[in-house]
Structures are given as structure tokens and as C-alpha cells.
């Protein structure tokens, strides 16, 4: 009520705010003012609207106040290097981008913006390209249209990891009155040179780097591609990347429009096969070999492969494994395979990619969920004798070259297109057929992620109840498979069941539980850092694909039953 009363008082000076507050139902008001938006695995993300627990111009200003204070402390007289700001196609995105510049500019921090929307990977690249001290991306990634978000990047183009995000949050928490955050009108900043706009030279440099991932630039390209940006930022840049590299692509016209409401899809998420409905229709019409979709900020990419008479949609784990398998084999044949290198994934990524990497003599590092942790680890390779080989996570994010430090769908879609084209030209095989080869060589791995949504004020309480049950109960088996090891990343403890010996975990604290089971399978429970949902990841290795799928079903049925009981 204290939060609401402050906003209600401000409504006397802001008619739109007053109108918005009056339109809220009691339940909406309770949720909107029940707390503050916090930084999760993908930055600060939430439903747009009025309130401390909503994304709006006031909460955006407050976040940038904390960023400004942090940057002034860390960089002092280097703030003239500036901050790069970009945004996606969502409602209010450009307004929030300008609001960010207005707050940062009021503290004497120069800002750079693009003339229009740009992808998240280009924002990461641009921070490095401009030698800036930080970056800001306004996006809610693949969330529904009512969401927007705010992500901050360090000078290496990597999202802030908890250590640095906590330092920003510490400054944010010092704000006593959200309406007192200082800002300078954008027109004044532009006139004074404190806000500058970036030109096409940055786009050209980014595309040049993206094209450098290709191993066979001069190979014939009969592969037929259908691409969709799902109304997002990939529309222009991906189309140009495919055209410049000579790929034969058709585009889903209805989804090349920057529609903030995403009218042609239920959810603009390439992880969801339903998002490919229009792509598949066009694919069947033009007999496309490969369907490619990127999410609104174009950091994730999903694919559908023509396999016989229908399209098969690959998971992020499968696509990542295929990219590793293809590139390592081809680089070996070309004689350009690095002698010493490292592959990065996360604790919820399938083990099959790690098996492939190790078969080539490379070490594998698994991080917490969130690509910022992979970006951080890539940075730690600098100055060592190890080369970065590949980084990916199960949620459809990959990087082949580290000129960005976040997942990048533009370089990835070019690498995927090249891979599919090479197998078509050289071996007359599709990616599903190659995946079968990978399974036969490395094992029948299968994965599945189930999302349990808990919206409303009591949502966090329900998720905590479920996590507490598994955290404190001595569960010895799942679906008939014995638990061998339990890892609790919140307490940083690893428990060996057979010996009851406890040991520490080196990764940062996070509300995550991981169970290692008797047949080499594992299960992970993790509340989302950006959405009101609990994610349960299953990964199994069977003696056949059918056996592996049966194991997944058995595990999921047991967890679904228990979660219904607990919630």
C-alpha cells in the first residue's frame, strides 16, 4: 500500500499514470505493487504496466540510475567511452531505450543508439566494436507481447553476471523515490552530442564477422531455405546475411513485419514447433529443405528439417550436437582444427555434445543456466593457450565465434544453413539422417523440458514449496532409477548417496537442484529467472531411441503427479 500510495500521489501530475492506476483491479494492483522487478537469468523482465513489479518508464529509469552509479564508480573518467543502447520490436521498446539514455546522459555518460531496432547479438558486438563501457538491450526475448525487458552488458559484450548485477542492484536499492530519478531530455542530449546514433558501418562490420563462420564459401548452394524472424529484429539482418552468402532463401512475408503484438503466432518462440506454422506452409509450397526461425531479439534460432514428406523440428540439444559434430569433423579434414580448446555448455544441456567434444580431445566446461555464464568463461580463456571452440545451451542459443559474448542466431543460422547444405551436396543426406549417425556413434540421448506456470501473487510461494520438498526430502529414486548424486546449487553442496559424503560446488549460488540417476540420466529443477514458471529438465541415455523416450515419459509422469499434489 505504501508503494501504491506513492504512485497514486504522482498520478496528480501524470494523467496517463492516474488513468492506468484507476483501471487496475484489486488483484492486478496487488500483483503490480507486491514487490520490485529483479534481475534473473536474462536480466530484468516483466509484464508492462504501472507498478513497482511492472516494466514501465519509471522502473526503467530506476534500473538505469543503478547502472549509472555503478559505471561512474568503476570507470570514473572513462565514461566518455559511452554505453551502447538497442531495442527490439516490442511495445514501448524505443521509448524505454530513450529513457535509458536520458538517465545515463544526466550523469554525464555518453550514449550510442541505432536509428531503429537491432538484434541482441549485434548489441553485444557493438559494445566491443565501439570500445564502450557497457550496453543496454531492451527486449523480452521470446515472451508474449505483454512483456518487455532490460538487459545490461559489460565492456566485453557479456551480460552482467551476478557479481556485477548485484553491485548495480545495490545502487538501485538506494533510490527512495522512484519519481525523483534524474533524467535529461533526449533532444538536449542529442544537441549536446551526449546521445549519438550509430550508422550502417556497425551493421556491415557485424555481418562481416557473421559470414566468417562459413567453412565452405564457394560450395554450390542448392539447399532451399524458408526463414522467419517471427516479427522480430532478425528480419533485415538475417535476410541480408543469407543473401550476401548466396543461400537460396524464401521469407515468410507476414512475419517479416515488425508487429509488437505477434498476431500470426501464439508465442514468438522458435523452441515451439507451433511457431513454424506459416513457415511450414511456405516450405511445403516451395519444397524447402530447411525451415529457420529466430526469436524477436534474434539471439535464439530453431530449425525444421524436411525428412521424407514432413518437417521434423530439432531441439536445441540436437542442433548443438550436430553443429559440433559437423564443424569438428570438417575442420579436421581441412587441417584447421585447433590443437587445444574448450567447449562450453550449461548444467541443463545434454551430455551428447560434451561426448562429441571430448572425442576430439577438447575439454568441456558446464556453467549455470544463462548465456552470461558462458560469455564470462569465454573471457577467461583470453591470454591462455586454449582456444574457444563452441558454446551452446539447450534453449536454442549458440555461438561459433566469440566476436559476441551472447548467443547469436545470425552466425548460427549461417552455420546451420552451411551444414545442411554440405550434407545435401556431399552426401545427399538431411540433418535427421546425420543425427541418427551421431546417436549410433555416441549413444541414444534424449531430453525434454516441462514448464509449470505459477502466475499471480502466490506463484512464487507455490514454486518455493515445490523446491523445498525436493530440497529437503530424501528422495532415493525417480521412475525406478536410483539417485546416485544430488547437487544443490543454492547451498553449494553435492551429496553422494552411497557414501553420504558431502562436498562443495564451485559454481555461483542459484536456486537449482540436479539429480544424477543410476543409468546415466539426470533431472534438474529450476525456477525461471525471468518468468513465473518452474522448469524441469530431463536428460536420459537409453539403449535405443524408443527406450530413451520411454524413460523420459516415466520420469515426467512422476514429477507431474507430485507437482499437482504439492500445488
Features:
single chain; 567 residues; alpha/beta; Alpha-D-Glucose-1,6-Bisphosphate, Chain A, domain 3; TATA-Binding Protein; 3 domains; 8-stranded antiparallel beta sheet; 7-stranded mixed beta sheet; 18 helices; 24 strands; globular
Helical residue percent?
25-40%
Q: What portion of residues belong to β-strands?
A: 15-25%
CATH level-four homologous superfamily name of the largest domain: Alpha-D-Glucose-1,6-Bisphosphate, subunit A, domain 3
Question: What is the name of the CATH class of the largest domain?
Answer: Alpha Beta
Main sheet record: 8 strands, antiparallel
Secondary structure category: alpha/beta
Beta-strand segment tally: 24
Which residues sit in consecutive blocks of at least 5 with pLDDT less than 50? none
Alpha plus pi helix count:
18
Instruction: Give Rg in angstroms.
Output: 24 Å
Mean pLDDT: 95
Q: Quick one: overall form?
A: globular
If classified by CATH, what would the architecture of the largest domain be? 3-Layer(aba) Sandwich
Count of structural domains: 3
CATH topology of the largest domain: Alpha-D-Glucose-1,6-Bisphosphate, Chain A, domain 3
**Distance separating the two termini:** 28 Å
Question: Could you please describe the fold and organization of this structure?
Answer:
The protein has 3 domains: 2-198, Alpha-D-Glucose-1,6-Bisphosphate, subunit A, domain 3 (Alpha-D-Glucose-1,6-Bisphosphate, Chain A, domain 3), CATH 3.40.120.10; 203-213 and 220-442, 3-Layer(aba) Sandwich (Alpha-D-Glucose-1,6-Bisphosphate, Chain A, domain 3); 444-566, Alpha-D-phosphohexomutase, C-terminal domain (TATA-Binding Protein). It is globular, with a radius of gyration of 24 Å. The protein is built from 18 helices and 24 strands. Helix 4 (57-75) runs parallel beside helix 5 (93-106), helix 9 runs parallel beside helix 15 and helix 12 (316-334) packs across helix 16. Strands 17, 18, 19, 20, 21, 22, 23 and 24 form an 8-stranded antiparallel beta sheet that branches. A hairpin with a 5-residue loop joins strand 23 and strand 24 (533-542). By secondary structure, the chain is an alpha/beta fold.
Amino acid at each position: 500500500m505504501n508503494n501504491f500510495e506513492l504512485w497514486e500521489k504522482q498520478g496528480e501530475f501524470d494523467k496517463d499514470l492516474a488513468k492506468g492506476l484507476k483501471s487496475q483491479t484489486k488483484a492486478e494492483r496487488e500483483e503490480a505493487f507486491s514487490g520490485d522487478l529483479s534481475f534473473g537469468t536474462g536480466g530484468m523482465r516483466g509484464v508492462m504496466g504501472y507498478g513497482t513489479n511492472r516494466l514501465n518508464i519509471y522502473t526503467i529509469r530506476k534500473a538505469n540510475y543503478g547502472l549509472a552509479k555503478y559505471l561512474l564508480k568503476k570507470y570514473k573518467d572513462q565514461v566518455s567511452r559511452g554505453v551502447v543502447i538497442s531495442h527490439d520490436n516490442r511495445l514501448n521498446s524505443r521509448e524505454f531505450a530513450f529513457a535509458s539514455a536520458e538517465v545515463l546522459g544526466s550523469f554525464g555518460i555518453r550514449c550510442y543508439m541505432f536509428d531503429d531496432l537491432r538484434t541482441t547479438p549485434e548489441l553485444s558486438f557493438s559494445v566491443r566494436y565501439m570500445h564502450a563501457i557497457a550496453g543496454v538491450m531492451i527486449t523480452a526475448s521470446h515472451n508474449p507481447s505483454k512483456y518487455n525487458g532490460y538487459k545490461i552488458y559489460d565492456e566485453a559484450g557479456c551480460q552482467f553476471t551476478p557479481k556485477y548485477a548485484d553491485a548495480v542492484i545495490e545502487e538501485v536499492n538506494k533510490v527512495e523515490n522512484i519519481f525523483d530519478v534524474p533524467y535529461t531530455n533526449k533532444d538536449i542530449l542529442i544537441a549536446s552530442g551526449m546521445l549519438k546514433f550509430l550508422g550502417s558501418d556497425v551493421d556491415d562490420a557485424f555481418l562481416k564477422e557473421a559470414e566468417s563462420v562459413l567453412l565452405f564459401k564457394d560450395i554450390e548452394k542448392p539447399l532451399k531455405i524458408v526463414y522467419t524472424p517471427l516479427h522480430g529484429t532478425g528480419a533485415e539482418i538475417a535476410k541480408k546475411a543469407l543473401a550476401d552468402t548466396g543461400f537460396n532463401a524464401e521469407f515468410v512475408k507476414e512475419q517479416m513485419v515488425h508487429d509488437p503484438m505477434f498476431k500470426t503466432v501464439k508465442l514468438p518462440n522458435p523452441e515451439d514447433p507451433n511457431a513454424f506454422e506459416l513457415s511450414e506452409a511456405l516450405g511445403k509450397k516451395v519444397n524447402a529443405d530447411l525451415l529457420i526461425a529466430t526469436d524477436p531479439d534474434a539471439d535464439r534460432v530453431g530449425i525444421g528439417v524436411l525428412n521424407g514428406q514432413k518437417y521434423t523440428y530439432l531441439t536445441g540439444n540436437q542442433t548443438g550436437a550436430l553443429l559440433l559434430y559437423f564443424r569438428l569433423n570438417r575442420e579436421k579434414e581441412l587441417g584447421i582444427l585447433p590443437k587445444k580448446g574448450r567447449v562450453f555448455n550449461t548444467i541443463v544441456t545434454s551430455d551428447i555434445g560434451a561426448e562429441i567434444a571430448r572425442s576430439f580431445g577438447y575439454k568441456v566446461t558446464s556453467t549455470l543456466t544463462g548465456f552470461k555464464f558462458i560469455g564470462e568463461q569465454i573471457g577467461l580463456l583470453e591470454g591462455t593457450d586454449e582456444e574457444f571452440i563452441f558454446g551452446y545451451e539447450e534453449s536454442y542459443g549458440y555461438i561459433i565465434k566469440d566476436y559476441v559474448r551472447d548467443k547469436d542466431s545470425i552466425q548460427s543460422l549461417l552455420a546451420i544453413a552451411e551444414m545442411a547444405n554440405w550434407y545435401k551436396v556431399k552426401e545427399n543426406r538431411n540433418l535427421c539422417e546425420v543425427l541418427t549417425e551421431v546417436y549410433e556413434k555416441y549413444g541414444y540421448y534424449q531430453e525434454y523440458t516441462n514448464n509449470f506456470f505459477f502466475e499471480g501473487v502466490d506463484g512464487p510461494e507455490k514454486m518455493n514449496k515445490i523446491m523445498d520438498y525436493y530440497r529437503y526430502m530424501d528422495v532415493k529414486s525417480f521412475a525406478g532409477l536410483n539417485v546416485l548424486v544430488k547437487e544443490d546449487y543454492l547451498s553449494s553442496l553435492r551429496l553422494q548417496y552411497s557414501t553420504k559424503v558431502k562436498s562443495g560446488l564451485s559454481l555461483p549460488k542459484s536456486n537449482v537442484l540436479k539429480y544424477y540417476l543410476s543409468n546415466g540420466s539426470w533431472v534438474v529443477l529450476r525456477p525461471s529467472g525471468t518468468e513465473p514458471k518452474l522448469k524441469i529438465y530431463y536428460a536420459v541415455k537409453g539403449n535405443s531411441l524408443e527406450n530413451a523416450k520411454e524413460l523420459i515419459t516415466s520420469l515426467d509422469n512422476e514429477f507431474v503427479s507430485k507437482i499437482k499434489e504439492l500445488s
